Amino acid sequence: MRPVVGGWSLRRRVITLLTVVGVLLIGLATAEAAMAARNRTQIDAVLNETGPLRVQSQELLNALLDQETAIRGYAVSGDPADLNPYREGLQQEESVVTAMRALLDNYPQVGQELKLVEERTAQWRQSVAVPVIATTEQSGTNAGQALVTEQARQQFDQVRSAVNDLQQEILAAREQSAANVRNSSNVLVVLLIIAALVVVVAGALLLLSLDRMVVRPLIGLADQVREVAEGDYQHRIATTGPPEFLRLGEDVDAMRQKIAADLAEVRAARERIEWVNSQLQKQAEELTRSNRDLEQFAYVASHDLQEPLRKVASFCQLLQRRYAGQLDERADQYIAFAVDGAQRMQRLINDLLAFSRIGRLTTGFVEVDLNKVMGDVAGQTEAARQYADAELTWTELPVISGEEPLLTNLLANLVSNSIKFRRPDVPAKVHVSARLVGAEWEITCQDNGIGIEPEFADKIFVIFQRLHSKDAYPGTGIGLAIVKKIVEYHGGRVWVDTDVPEGTAIRFTLPALPGDVEAAAAADPSEQSEATSAGDTTSSNGTLTEQADGPDQPDRADETPESGRTGDMRETVG
Asked: Are 476 and 464 in contact (CB under 8 A)?
């Protein structure tokens, strides 16, 4: 049984420390946020309230001085134009007082001083300015000057004194706001320093705790584990520290005991495994030799079977030519059966020989232009295309790495099958196209023939697998198996696309050259899609007339096209 381990766990200690630090930091952050908001308000008061009030108080004083000067000037000259500064001063006074009142919500004392300025200004205007203007207009300049007395000047001095008191009150309010800004900034700095100290102290406590509760116990545990790893499996492992480390030490010691108990079994099993591996090595070598012998046997057997088959076929044909009509009808039928069987056996052996050679006799991979390959295929299939009235087209095909003879055989088999399995009432059309998908070229051979049912899509690539009788469609049933083997030898895959509306579409992939992949990746996606669609819809690259000499094509060497027919060969050169 595992002993009960008491005390706080490492997780609990770390969580408690982090919780305390988190609460302190959250409290400090809240206080800092509140103080920062207060500081912004106080700065706004200095910049947007008391500062503009000082400027506006000076503007108010200037407006009042303009009025007083204009009144004295008018009393001397009697010119009405001298009253323009007085009228402009009145407008400016009203504008400044309105602007100042909008900023006095937080400054009631300044508002009282402004009210006092307005009252004294109104008294001066009523007792001095208005009477001087009226008297000068009615009685002349001498009467007007008589009203500009020392008492009038003293009354305006009271107005100026009130404005000075207003400015002093605004200055005091500004100094108070500035002092508030300094105080709140100092408090904010203190809070930040406290937060930094909390972080530093918490980090130091965490570092010391980890060193005492984690690092030292781990070093001790590692030393003991290292002793066991060096071969001392009987060394008991014990550790100190928080409960998690004590349980870890017990688990490691239990593992040590199990390893020590299993070690003897492992050593015994190792000897048995080495013996089994030696036997498997011998069997693998035997299997390799057997496969090599089987390949050689198939190759030699196909060659050795040619000579007796040629004799059988030759003598049966001699019997057919020399004694045709001289024996009874059944004898002629038997001879025909023998000739046909020998010829089919000959074709079957040739196809089997070609199948066994794929991947075994190699000339090495080179860069192959599939457009040139399709030109060769068109030339090979010229006679068959004339006979079947078939049309073969292809779009621009890529350059790939492979063996040109095998790729020619691959495309020739596909084209041959498309011609062979044509519909009797429709001219055969075969189209070969290619598109880049990722790092592979996907090449499609599509026709308008009889098509393939989806349930047979996988069976057609099996060697000697036929979906029709040999009387309906001649051939050995090995052509598509050769196609599959060639494609897989080049690192691709082949399948039948059953979603086409008519005919058959056989698709296969071949690895693309690195340059093609890099060019496609660097090309603009829209341009690439336009180029692809243009390539798929244009049948201007290549001359294709189906071939009849592929492995699955019937032997028509002795047959001739219908009289007067040219085969309706159509060639499209891009």
From this structure: yes
